[in-house]
Fold these 3 entries.
Entry 1:
Amino acid sequence: MSTPYIPCLDLGSYINGSEEERKKFSDELGRAFNDSGFVTITNHGLSQDLIEKLYENIKAAFALPLETKRKYEKPELAGQRGYTSAGKETAKGAKTPDLKEFWQIGQEVTDGDPVKNEYPDNEILEELPEFNAVTGSIYKKLEENGTHLLRAIATYLELPINYFDKHVHNGNSILRGIHYFPIENPEIIPDDAVRAGAHEDINLITLLIGASADGLEVLTRSNEWLPIKAHHTDIVVNVGDMLQRLTNNKLKSTTHRVVNPPRELMKTSRFSVPFFLHPRSDMDLTSLPSTIDAEHPKLYSDMTAGEYLDERLREIGLKK
Ligand SMILES: O=C(O)CCC(=O)C(=O)O
Ligand SMILES: [Fe+2]
């Protein structure tokens, strides 16, 4: 089920559809990215079974003792691989860190591409061998879905359909398993402490498998917070700042947040698993000439994806 402002699109109709269906999907996706910056998608090819396995493993991983999880927290990796404990990530411009802990999995390069040297190895969670296999398989499937979505967007932007392919092949994407832990003593947390403070994602697009509980909200153009209702098996997709930058704000990287639960649910956990689709670090994010004109002057300085990521990781406190 989707919220009226957030359209729900059938990815199967793009991947396996007729020319006409593919065009329709690409127009609808482009329009939504131009408007709210968010869609939900169905028929994404991830089985319910795999999604359930994913959540079982994510829950089991965060249920491990803190000292076990801490073995996988390496400050030199700036949160980009393995475990990041509570209190480390703060939304850009916010004072109090988010009420969450998370685990990040990065790209596994297997085709001899020298870009492998840019990526640290993934941390292998020895206590839960299935966790590594399941998250690795989810990573690949979401990457594949994301590549299809970017093809649809390339068509919408009147670029060659494969415009993004070479940039996202072996790109610096991240799968992040998040645990928003129970809030045991709501009275003693700072007033501004939230599960995830209002922010925009850094990457090209984000694909998020419907979370275990409500809480995700997007900021509409009329400045109202709109809750996103997604079935457990739907995928929420949104534009990130890199795609907004490339399109000189034609496509919107919409502000979103995760609110604290109502009082009666304060002591429950929430789990979610976003996939941040990043390009390779050498992708040039200079705004496309077709998106710049007298009415839409150029808004951003020219930067590569790698330079931009570095700047943003410092702003959110993950990189020192
Ligand atoms: O947990 C969610 O539903 C959203 C998480 C999110 O926005 C993020 O990690 O960037
Ligand atoms: Fe986000």
Entry 2:
Amino acid sequence: MSTDENAAEELLRGPEGLGRRDMPTSWTRRPGIEPTPDFLAMIDALRALQDDVTAAVPPPDVLVDTTKTLSELSERLRAYAAPERDQLTGRLITVPGRGQTMSPVLHLDEWSEHHARGHVTFGRFYLGGNGAVHGGAIPLLFDEILGRLANTGGRRPSRTAFLHVNYRSITPIGVELQIEGRFEREEGRKRFLTAELRHGDTLCADAEGLFVQLKPGQP
Ligand SMILES: CCCCC/C=C\C/C=C\C/C=C\C/C=C\CCCC(=O)SCCNC(=O)CCNC(=O)[C@H](O)C(C)(C)COP(=O)(O)OP(=O)(O)OC[C@H]1O[C@@H](n2cnc3c(N)ncnc32)[C@H](O)[C@@H]1OP(=O)(O)O
């Protein structure tokens, strides 16, 4: 089993795990709806498209053609729109990236209840300027790793209350970066976590997050 599958199993485990029946319905999926390799291939193609659109400066005829094709694709997929509960993107916790393209794909290499380590590459889509990742994309990644850690180990669901990010040096696009997160402590409903993002020996950014355990019925 891959580290991502282990992490997913951990998330869903036990009477207090995220598989509980009182989990908010928006985070659960109806049984029987599973991603197919074709669905995941579509998501990968969309990631590549995001990078290519970001970089491209096409001539007018290519632009017109591309826009027409994209509009046709949108219309085709819109016919298959499902309610949130049945949506696949973002819910595929056994798959690196969870089948969504909003944040870069987080690959988990090590996982425990209190610690996570992984790697990630920000594509051209996430460019802010001068080869550096956009400052808004970095918290997405921190929220992803800390959100998973905050809600693992049979802990009841929690939401991010704050996420403080320090940008220590630029975060380069197109290279593999290392990320590490830690569950620091718990005080009642409050869970404090920290994370660092590194390129080799260079600390790019670090973060502290507070996650607050949801009360029953809290959305
Ligand atoms: C729906 C559950 C989600 C769980 C999903 C988990 C796993 C799913 C599986 C896989 C997914 C994989 C990865 C997950 C990736 C990301 C998950 C990230 C989750 C999010 O990204 S989610 C979106 C952003 N998030 C929000 O949309 C929250 C909006 N907000 C609220 O929903 C409320 O605001 C809430 C609930 C946070 C608190 O509200 P509340 O009424 O329950 O509690 P209250 O205000 O009393 O605070 C209690 C104590 O926390 C202290 N406190 C509160 N806020 C503070 C702050 N900002 N600074 C300092 N202290 C703070 C108080 O001071 C008090 O402290 P004390 O007890 O010591 O006085």
Entry 3:
Amino acid sequence: MSTTKGLEGVVATESSISSIIDDQLTYVGYKIDDLAENSSFEEVVYLLWNKRLPKVEELEEFTKELVSNMEIPNELIEHFKSYDLKTVHPMAALRTAVSLLGLFDEEADVMTEDANYKKAIRLQAKISTIVTAFARIRDGKEPISPRSDFSYAANFLYMLTGKEPKALEVEAMNKAFILHADHELNASTFTSRVCVATLSDVYSGITAAIGALKGPLHGGANERVMKMLTEIGEVENAIPYVKDKMANKEKIMGMGHRVYRTGDPRAKHLKKMSKELTELTGQPKWYEMSVKIEDYIKAEKGLPANVDFYSASVYHSLGIEHDLFTPIFAISRFSGWLAHMLEQYANNRLIRPRAEYVGPRNQVFVPIEER
Ligand SMILES: CC(=O)SCCNC(=O)CCNC(=O)[C@H](O)C(C)(C)COP(=O)(O)OP(=O)(O)OC[C@H]1O[C@@H](n2cnc3c(N)ncnc32)[C@H](O)[C@@H]1OP(=O)(O)O
Ligand SMILES: O=C([O-])CC(=O)C(=O)O
């Protein structure tokens, strides 16, 4: 048997949801650039789950379905109010809340294609409400109900802040959601597929995936990018800071990628938004120091900025608390996880690889009192 550390380069499944070929990302064959510039998050979710773009009436119907399923059970709100939210990381709270949500879904274990699709709608609808309810309750405020006349992105910002969001803010959020929606067989998506390949339910798959996304080598990097920028403080400190980290063999968050070599095609969109939003908010330094770091790491290590790098200064400019950055990633990636779980159910086989045993052999058991 031969092993590949971290399964690098191993092709573990077939999929027709998203592809990364020659550093280009597509969703169901549509270029990410076209979708980011011209589409809505709702349309992209439809695309990922149905593997085709919707017609006008289909998108209207789908959008209505999403909004009408956004309310969350009161028990979940009471659950958030029952402990000190300031002492927990939002991703941990989210992991538990989504698992709890499954207990209120009578169809959680109904495995028909139709039931799973309906659960996907319910989960995608409610995740944005869960994250915003958590954030508001943590700040001592009451959760806000979604508005049926708002898009998914607008509702997220509205439920978070209680204010009607500006067009530019909605555009940025919509684009960020589209860009994070799916990414082939990344660690959290693989986790979700492994989970439901045992024919477990989608709530289990999503809960497992949230756990995988939380880590700093994956979705957890975006929050840490902002921590790094905050520590750097001013543009002139950026290079000395990064040099120091590199000298200590520490990784620079938001840089590098397992698959991309020349660059992450999502990063340029977030970079553009970061420039616009940081200028608009009178804080161009976050963008400027990010560019310095990106250029330095590219020149020194040949590593590209990934999707987490510029999303940090985008979300910061939208006034979002830093520890909500990864939950925002999760809101978007729910759509990809759900698409992959639906695909897995449709053509399932248990995922069970092998491990090469490298431990001791032929040991003689010694009773405990003689050791
Ligand atoms: C949405 C996402 O999940 S995108 C990824 C988000 N994660 C991050 O931004 C965390 C920072 N980046 C990383 O840790 C890595 O680049 C990963 C985990 C994303 C992918 O890396 P892998 O393919 O596993 O590469 P690995 O970690 O083995 O690194 C290979 C080499 O590049 C270096 N390297 C990789 N990323 C970085 C980085 N961000 N900063 C500095 N050096 C890095 C490693 O130190 C290693 O160098 P060496 O060969 O001299 O020892
Ligand atoms: O694909 C990966 O390994 C990580 C990533 O960029 C993502 O999940 O968006």
